[in-house]
Prior knowledge:
20% strand; alpha/beta
Amino acid sequence: MDYQEIPLFFDCKGATLVGMLTRPDSVPRVGVLIVVGGPQYRVGSHRQFVLLARALASAGIACMRFDYRGMGDSEGDPVRFDATGPDVGAAIETFAEKMPNLGTIVLWGLCDGAAACALARPDLRVGGMILVNPWVRTEATAAEATLRHYYAGRIFALAFWRKLAIGGVDFAQSLTGLLRTIRRAGVPDAAAAGTANLPGRFGRALARHRGPVLVMLSGNDQTAEEFRLAVKKPGPLRSVMQDSRVTQVDIAGADHTLSTADWRDRASALTLDWLRRHFFQPGAASS
């Protein structure tokens, strides 16, 4: 083993949060703070955050993962992802304190953990973000993604028509659901009315962050499809995704939580490659 795992306990607004530091035996210059998507805790679905932290530490990159207030082993009342700024800030502070040689910290988040990364208070110690299947849901994009991701798949599936032929499908109920979803998809997003909405907030917050950003999208996930649809609409999210410092990559066939070893390994490889290109090259922030 070329790393150590060290339990952490730190304060956030009077509540004790629990984390885990995976520290390489070498002196790291880059650290990755994993911000979880909820409701889950620092281990992650399929132990993905444990495995990612160990893979990064084996490559000489420090990693910290932690539980929000009210989640996992942490104290306090549960908080929404867009109210976790104090939790993320406290984790950054603790990470920097425990690893004083770090030249930069990169935030890594999945789903609403990715949204929490973008929406967190800007911090000069944060030099980059890796955002996986970011949560930017609106009623319209959710409905449109459902039409594309669910109904389109059913219409072209032979099993659906076989089930319909033998009476295994409530046709009236299915039709009602389809029509309701079509109506929702046609509702203008709040952005069109100039009011605050999650894609807009996400885009504006990400624009305030001046470091490089990697966005990973699963190929078979409705949340990722909602993000793709939101990016197509004019607004702050579309603008920031066109910035040269933002890179988008797809993981073909993957589901939302990267539930197979192949998908997790692909995400880890993309993470490591991106970190090396941006923070381990001559002239990079961590050198």
